[in-house]
Amino acid sequence: MSEVSAPRAPVALGILLSGRGSNFMAIAEAIRAGRLQGCTIAVVLSNVADAPGLLAAQELGLSTVTLVSKGTPRAEHDRNMVEALRRHGVDLVVLAGYMRVLTAEFLRAFPDRVLNIHPSLLPAFPGLHAQRQALEYGAAVAGCTVHFVDEAVDHGVIVLQRTVPVEPMDTEETLADRILNVEHLAYPEAIARVLSGGYAVRGRRYLPAEPLAS
Amino acid sequence: MSEVSAPRAPVALGILLSGRGSNFMAIAEAIRAGRLQGCTIAVVLSNVADAPGLLAAQELGLSTVTLVSKGTPRAEHDRNMVEALRRHGVDLVVLAGYMRVLTAEFLRAFPDRVLNIHPSLLPAFPGLHAQRQALEYGAAVAGCTVHFVDEAVDHGVIVLQRTVPVEPMDTEETLADRILNVEHLAYPEAIARVLSGGYAVRGRRYLPAEPLAS
What we know:
The structure is a homodimer.
Chain A lengths: L10 E7 L4 H11 L6 E8 L5 H8 L4 E3 L7 H14 L4 E4 L8 H6 L4 E5 L11 H8 L3 E8 L9 E8 L6 H25 L2 E4 L2 E4 L6
Parallel strand pairs in A: 1-2, 1-4, 2-3, 4-5
Antiparallel strand pairs in A: 5-6, 6-7, 8-9
Helix pairs in contact in A: 1-6
């Protein structure tokens, strides 16, 4: 991954989710409100048949695809997803509570074109139950990270991070809610940054691309 | 470590440093300006003979002790430090750029009474060159952590954390400077919190002590 050139507009997003998809809803609302220009949601894909996010997508008039992962070999499932995403002309894959690790084959199909959001300030508290991990560690600051997805869990290049305080009375639920509020702002902002084409990866740093030397 | 009771006032701080001691200077200034009431600096102790922080302490009229660690067995050095700190009536030990790991024996001499500041949002980027680690990881947010010292490196219970952004043009030096600015505010604030006696450790969380049940 090195220079990231500006994709053609409008960019077609493919959303992957497994649950309620609140980050998907925040992205859809950002597009509707004109805060995330130059892209459309081409398809919402769920690996869980009764994911509430699927119904929400249908109510918004968006195309949806359900590919149940349970009982399907991972490689076969991911191949089916790639096929569905390509059929819908997807340029950028956006994970919004998609609770499975993607295969290397999937990632090769969308090189540097898969984003995820994680409810911690990575590299702190990767994996499941990040908010519980933060509380148990006694962190005083928490937050979220939008990052490119690579083959390691919660590890890819960081697009942006946003912080929230941990409050003395916090439970896992109240902290998760506070983080989710900033996730809903951070994810559209990160997508806009990626779509701008004005950034490039240097080492692991995601930086404004320098003007071309003349 | 469980309930932390309010120490008697004025509390005598013992500062340990190895270098310029900018955090020591920030604490001294907070005391002078009345922003950190109820404590005095009883002694400034260095393990490096020509540490600039020692000279700064002498210019402020503070007692200083130099115990050169180089060439002295660690256990013996730490026993000498404990003896010097006790001789000066130290209640709370404050590490301000003290570049050695303390022995368990030292920590037993000041149970739950040793504070450190680390230039990262722990548990991210422990150890040396935290700012460089943050840049190389591509973190978008950095900061500092004031924590109680336990026998693991950069691991004890967190008193508070403060964040700063990582800027696109940052070098290790510019990021370190930005973090240092918040360190100088965070450390006096954390010491005031500890001296207030109004906090207690629950698990690893440092929380306002609940009122006594009547």
